[in-house]
Amino acid sequence: MMNKLKLSIILIILLLPSIVWAACSGSSPNLTAASSSQTDVAACVTASITGDTINVPAGTSTWSSAISIPAAKDLTIIGAGIGNTNITCSSGSCFQIAQSGSSSESRISGFSFINGIIDLTGLQGGKVVRIDHNSFTASSLATWDIAGWTDGVHPSVLIDSNILHNQRFVIHGTWGELTDGPWQHQIWAQQPPKGSWPNIVYIESNTITADISPINMPDSARGGRFVFRFNTIQGIYTEAHGVQGNVRSVQWWEIYNNEYANTGQYFFMFIRGGSGFIFDNTYALDREISFNIQRSCESVATAGQCNGESNWDGNTVDEYGYPCRDQIGRSYDTTQWSPGEAYSQPLTPAYIFNNKYSAAEIDLEFHQDPYCAEAETYHAIENRDYYLLDGSFDGTTGIGRGVLASIPATCTTGVGYWATDQGNWNQSGDDGVLYKCTSTDTWEVYYTPYAYPHPLRGEGEPEPTPHLSVPGNLTGTIQ
After folding, report:
1. DSSP letters spanning 283-306
2. Helices (H), 54-199
3. How confident is the model over 261-265, as a mean pLDDT?
4. 13 φ, ψ to 5°?
5. Which among 207, 217, 257 is positioned nearest to 464, based on CA atoms?
6. 51 half-sphere exposure, CB direction, 13 A CA radius
7. Which of 63, 218, 466, 471 gets the most CB atoms within 10 Å of its CB?
8. Alpha carbon separation from 46 to 40, 42, 70, 85 (Å, rounded)
9. Would you state the pLDDT for residue 100?
10. Mind listing the pLDDT tens digit for each residue in 439-469?
């Protein structure tokens, strides 16, 4: 009996390599899964080493759980293309990449995912995750939490050239709340990478639709930083949260060259904190960019109300608490801060220009619920905390736009001028550079957008086929 048992064990051991080989063929750096099944793709992940490419053939499969890509492996996993490699993710996640404070340089491309996301919660900075040329469709809202871990380093992610339906990205600099540790304060103690890379999330050249209540996508908080550009959007509005509960505000946003096709929401952007740039977006309906500073009108957990009584704020005399912590027009702490220490956030105004409904400039309004006048009376004031396009720009207020030769000779500190004939960052169309009046009558280049298409995309990559068959007249509530 013992001899038979030993013989059986020996046979299993001898057969094991052929079983793995049947599930995953090839050798480093190129492996091929035998099918699109969870078992076969996971076998290739197990057999791989960092730097390998795993090819997944056409097929239709259901995965009962996410395939985890461990931190020690930077992998490229390539399906046979949208509509060819079709994966239904019954657990809600399809892949889980480098969790709990690990960095990854993995890439997922060439799949159609149904009712699933890529889990990017807990990424450490330093490496880049890329998600591209996939379709993600869901029958109900699917939320991606794209978040750093507890090391105070913002994740670097590129999400491009996908077709996304009923998906929502929420971008956090760190996953921890204020009660967990100082990580949000560490993020805010870093100047955001204005017009550059890495340590930021880029979302570009995607087709994004929704047929449920309008989705806030992307959304951001906890020191989140994102660039949202060159996307085609329907049924979506874009949001950036302020100080709320046990979290600090979004830190940085750049939102430009997006085409918002349709939504029932009464604004198409809802900005509550941080700073950045919003420009060259188009909108199919007469909607607004909306500002909100929640703490102007009510007390929130941890921080209280911005009214001159909270040690979170600058509390300038007779300014009702101004500047409020992380408010619109503030983007970093000069030193790492903790509650009770001196306020140390320099003014970094937001610049908003050339956002169009038809040929008209889109209005900016304050949306305060409950309503109070303090937000726009004391806290976020035009030509101080933010600047808007001025059609008759003379260098004293607002933002001008035109060729560099037309920039006024005189200027007031803080105003901006978008020089349309400068820069060489946009390989698909018009360029432009923002000049800022840094002191009286002194213009300096202040902002040049990062290269587009993103350099990681490479030459000659195909774009996804747009798909915008979504009912109009959508309604919904603010999230």
Report:
1. ESS--EEEE--HHHHS-BTTTB-S
2. 183-188
3. 72
4. -60, -40
5. 207
6. 3
7. 218
8. 10, 6, 9, 20
9. 64
10. 999 999 999 999 999 999 986 666 655 444 4
Residue 415, amino acid = V
User: Residue 95: which of 38, 140, 147 has the closest Cα?
Assistant: 38
Contact of 291 with 328, CB cutoff 8 Å: yes
Cβ atoms of residues 241 and 265 within 8 Å: no
CA distance 135 to 467: 11
CA distance 303 to 243: 8
Q: Residue 457 phi/psi, 5° resolution?
A: -75, -25
The ranges assigned to domains in the chain are 23-390, 399-447
Backbone angles phi and psi of 9, in degrees to 5 = -65, -45
* Structure token digits, residue 295: 């703490």
DSSP state of 230: S
Alpha carbons 425 and 431: distance in angstroms, whole number = 6
What amino acid is encoded at 286 in this protein?
D
Report d(CA 444, CA 356) in Å as an integer. Answer: 27
Query: Cα–Cα distances in Å, from 348 out to 221, 223, 367, 384?
Result: 18, 15, 22, 9
Distance of alpha carbon 106 from alpha carbon 119, whole angstroms? 12
d(CA 40, CA 26): 13
Which residues, in sequence order, are CB contacts of 173 under 8 Å at separation 6+? Answer: 147, 148, 154, 183, 184, 187, 188, 222, 223, 224, 225, 251
Which amino acid is residue 441, in one-letter code? D
Q: Which two tokens stand for residue 194?
A: 């204005």
Residue 197's alpha-carbon distances to 127, 228, 245, 404, 475, in angstroms, are: 11, 13, 30, 26, 36
Q: Is 434 left (phi over 0), alpha (psi -120 to 50) or beta?
A: beta
- The amino acid at residue 344 is S
Q: When comparing pLDDT for 380 and 19, which is higher? A: 380
| Alpha-carbon gap, residue 61 to 90, rounded angstroms | 10
In contact, 197 and 450? CB cutoff 8 Å: yes
Which residues, at least 6 apart from 459, have a Cβ–Cβ distance to it below 8 Å? none
pLDDT over 80 (residue 105)? yes
